Amino acid sequence: MGGVGQNEYTIDGMTVTGSGRRVAFVPPADAITEFKLETSNFDASQGFTSGAAINVSSKSGTNTLHGSLFDQHWQQRWNATPFFQRESYNAKVRAGLIDPNTTQKQAPGRSNNYGLSASGPVWIPKVINGKDKLFWSFTWNGIR
Question: Rounded to two decimals, what is the model's pTM?
């Protein structure tokens, strides 16, 4: 019965469930071609968990050169302040415990998630032409 009521995460069929039954690795979106969520998995191959089975399939190479660049910019100030955090902040302002001109409602923060993805046939002049036979795929991701 594996982990009763807990989820299992896989990439191309290989387990990537980390400690505490959480996902250990999340590939960049450009590296994924399919996402599959099974909530009622009665198949014997899913016998290691009674929770959901989450599987992603990675992209494979293609017959023509393809690629992409991406950058996701995120800032905490663009998000709404959580209700109870905002209520606590307002209560402290009313009580005179904090100065609203010098204290922010929520902590500052920002991040950039950037990367590139490329794929195509293996081609070495006068040695190998991998069109319809041999492919490559590459994805790189950085977080700052």
Answer: 0.63
